[in-house]
Amino acid sequence: MLLIYVNDIHSAVSSATVKLFDDDTNLFFHCKHPEELYTIANTSMVQLSAWITVNKLHLNLDKTCYSIVRSSQLRL
Fold first, then answer.
1. Number of H helices and number of E strands within the chain?
2. Stated pTM of the model
3. Mind listing the pLDDT tens digit for each residue in 14-48?
4. Cβ 48 vs Cβ 13: under 8 Å
5. Of 17, 27, 51, 69, which has the fewest CB atoms closer than 10 Å, so is most exposed?
6. Which residues pair with 27 in a beta bridge?
């Protein structure tokens, strides 16, 4: 039944790579500039929030987190 809900999540979040595993969803963003990454991530979260609302689902904030990974060759 879960697959019926999440089947279109890829199209709901335009600037992210979406990876699904069981009932977990991961969004991946990439960008060379931290300020632009912040904007992309926030816009995508607004899109995801709208999708969650339309599909009458909820986001478990206790299981929600983020990580920032950068190349050691990247200079900020």
1. 3, 2
2. 0.77
3. 888 988 887 788 899 988 888 899 999 999 999 99
4. yes
5. 69
6. 18
Burial of 14 (0-12, 13-18, 19+ CB in 10 A): exposed
Q: How far is 19 from 9, CA to CA, in rounded Å?
A: 10
Long-range contacts of 50-58 (CB under 8 A, 24+ apart): 50/12, 51/8, 51/9, 51/12, 51/13, 55/5, 57/5
CA distance linking residue 7 with residue 62, whole number of Å: 24
The two structure tokens encoding residue 37: 């990454």
Q: For residue range 43-71, what is the model confidence (pLDDT) as tens digits?
A: 999 999 999 899 888 888 898 888 888 77
Residues in the chain, total: 76
Partners of residue 18 on adjacent β-strands: 27
Run of H or E including 25: strand 24-28
